[in-house]
Structure to design on (671 residues):
């Protein structure tokens, strides 16, 4: 590295210290103290009552990540195989929702999923409910979609899907076509080329996609608030309550944040361990 | 050596309206080392890719062992390829790279319709055997990107040969190696080809590589085959000015075939060994730089002025001006710049070719001499002073 040029990195170093390192330290101090500034571990031992929130957060985030992967990988794969014109349009379409306000998008989903929302009205129109009523003998007027874990998961998938598609797409796009020809030359059929060459070499893209979907999902609070309607409290909501809401206790909030952070870091470390060596493969 | 293995018949290939291959007809024998040689863009790699099954010709047929294989996909052909930049799998170690093809294989088995996979013992035995024969024993668990260029090259060859193909295709495999290693690998490749006893089809633009290794050289340019022959044939009896210029150094002079065994250049008659031309047919005459003897002016068949001398170690490369047309002569005797010399050419040093589309494009060393001048700043200045 050129030492003279390293001066240019100074602004970011200051930024990093002021807005990342110092807040982290403050958070750690909060987590290990009481409101009377006495050192304590109580914040952590008290957390047990929220175990169900932890479980729900990680479960929904994991499901959302998996769904994103199942939708995103094939999408990225086929996109990368198309012509440059198609790729540009597809990329624009994938990015387009991200240019709209996040809350607006999520509110839209509320009006779609409501009991008298668009989707239920549609089912009503095509006579699905009268059919179900006559079949089961029970009066069914709408599906309860809002305020369910499914709605929250859907919101996460909708909002974070581009973060899964894009890294996978760019890794597959950069794959050396010669490798695919070499595999075919050595007797691999299309399925074997995919499983033995494309899939392992696109793992780094999958890993970064998973990270970029899972991390914001696990800590989201707006999606769970709006689409879960208070029934699907997640860690983000819980933390928000400790700082801004009725259950005001920033010390507990800081402790929860720290535990969440540690778990996320552990998850990522574990995944990167499995993907070890693949990272280098892409850099070739 | 004589059994025909691959036949290319009337192959044509075009891309975006541009002709890449123009009616290629080629027979390749079993156990032959055949080189497709030509400048970049001549169609040699496309020809190789058609044989490998990666490219489908616009028209024409590919026969393998008498069977038409136009529509057989690459993974079902008994042909393996060593790719230009090796295309080793970066996510697999040396062992697994070599084992890749074997793990794909299924051998027929009475109990299974699809056939059964090779046993791990069989795979292990063959991989280790192969690694040993390319001197890579002990490298099994190395990452391929941790290997040197020469080692990667060997892995690529082992990975292809372990499948026991009938034909190995090599696409400029030595291009990425330095000169010394390239020379070693040339000999090594020839040894491997003779040891495994299969057909090698080798693509290169390096004439020296082609001459060193090949049984047969196919010279291509602009999508057409210019000449097919042994290295000696091609060097000694080039068919046209392109071949003469591409293989080795050549002075190519306009001449007229007065009658059999007599050719006229610069208004003088020269005895030669060629015949079969029409009386007074205009021809191209090839004279190799090493076939020209320097003699005293009064004894020379032609006299010229030395315009440039370059010391090459084994010989001097001198440029001699014969009435405005510059020749390259290789000689062990020193003749100073500006001196008048005579030359003598033996009849077997003269090779007569029919006129072709390439006539007049090659074989004059005027530009060659300019390059020398440019390299030599002082001389440049002298010249500009004069003008």
């Amino acid at each position: 590295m050129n030492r003279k040029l390293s001066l240019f990195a100074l602004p970011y170093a200051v930024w990093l210290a002021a807005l990342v390192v110092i807040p982290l330290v403050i958070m750690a101090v909060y987590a290990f103290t009481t409101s009377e500034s006495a050192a304590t571990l109580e914040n952590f031992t008290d957390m047990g009552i929220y175990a169900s929130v932890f479980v729900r957060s990680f479960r929904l985030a994991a499901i959302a990540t998996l769904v994103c992967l199942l939708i995103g990988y094939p999408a990225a794969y086929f996109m990368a195989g198309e012509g440059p014109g198609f790729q540009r349009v597809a990329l624009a379409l994938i990015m387009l929702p991200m240019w709209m306000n996040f809350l607006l998008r999520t509110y839209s989903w509320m009006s779609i999923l409501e009991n008298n929302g668009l989707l239920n009205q549609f089912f009503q129109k095509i006579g699905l409910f009268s059919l179900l009523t006559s079949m089961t003998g029970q009066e069914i007027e709408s599906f309860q979609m809002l305020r369910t874990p499914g709605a929250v998961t859907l919101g996460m998938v909708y909002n974070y899907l581009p973060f899964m598609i894009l890294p996978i797409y760019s890794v597959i796009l950069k794959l050396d076509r010669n490798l695919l020809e070499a595999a075919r030359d050595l007797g691999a059929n299309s399925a074997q080329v995919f499983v033995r060459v494309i899939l392992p070499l696109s793992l780094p893209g999958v890993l970064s996609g998973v990270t970029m979907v899972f991390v914001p999902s696990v800590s989201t609070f707006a999606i769970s608030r709006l689409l879960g309607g208070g029934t699907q409290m997640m860690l983000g909501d819980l933390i928000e309550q400790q700082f801004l809401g009725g259950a005001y206790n920033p010390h507990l909030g800081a402790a929860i944040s720290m535990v969440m952070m540690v778990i996320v870091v552990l998850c990522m470390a574990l995944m990167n361990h499995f993907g070890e060596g693949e990272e280098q493969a892409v850099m070739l | 050596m004589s059994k025909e293995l691959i036949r290319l018949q009337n192959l044509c290939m075009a891309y975006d309206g541009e002709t890449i291959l123009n009616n290629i007809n080629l027979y390749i024998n079993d156990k032959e080392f055949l080189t497709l040689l030509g400048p970049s863009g001549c169609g040699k790699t496309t020809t190789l890719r058609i044989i490998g099954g990666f490219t489908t010709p616009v028209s024409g047929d590919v026969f393998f062992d008498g069977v038409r294989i136009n529509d057989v996909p690459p993974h079902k052909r008994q042909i393996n390829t060593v790719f230009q930049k090796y295309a080793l799998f970066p996510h697999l170690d040396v062992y697994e790279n070599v084992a890749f093809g074997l793990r794909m294989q299924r051998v027929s088995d009475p109990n299974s319709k699809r056939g059964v996979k090779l046993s791990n013992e069989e795979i292990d035995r063959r991989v280790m055997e192969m690694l040993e024969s390319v001197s890579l024993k002990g490298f099994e668990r190395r990452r391929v990107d941790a290997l040197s260029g020469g080692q990667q090259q060997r892995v690529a060859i082992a990975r292809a040969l372990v499948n026991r193909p009938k034909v190995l295709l090599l696409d400029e495999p030595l291009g990425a190696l330095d000169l010394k290693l390239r020379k070693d690998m040339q000999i090594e490749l020839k040894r491997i080809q003779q040891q495994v006893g299969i057909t090698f089809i080798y693509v290169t633009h390096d004439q020296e590589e082609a001459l060193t290794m090949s049984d047969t050289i196919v010279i291509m340019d602009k999508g057409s085959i210019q000449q097919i022959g042994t290295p000696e044939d091609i060097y000694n009896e080039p068919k046209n000015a392109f071949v003469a210029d591409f293989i080795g150094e050549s002075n190519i002079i306009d001449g007229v075939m007065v009658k059999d065994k007599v050719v006229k250049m610069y208004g003088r008659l020269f005895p030669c060994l060629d015949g079969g031309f029409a009386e007074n047919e205009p021809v191209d005459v090839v004279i190799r730089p090493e076939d020209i003897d320097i003699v005293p002016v009064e004894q020379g068949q032609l006299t010229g002025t030395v315009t440039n001398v370059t010391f090459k170690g084994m010989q001097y490369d001198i440029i001699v001006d014969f009435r405005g047309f510059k020749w390259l002569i290789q000689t062990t005797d020193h003749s100073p710049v500006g001196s008048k010399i005579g030359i003598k050419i033996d009849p077997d040093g003269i090779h007569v070719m029919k006129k072709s589309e390439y006539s007049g494009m090659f074989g004059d060393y005027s530009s060659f001499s300019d390059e020398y001048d440019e390299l030599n700043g002082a001389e440049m200045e002298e010249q500009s002073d004069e003008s």
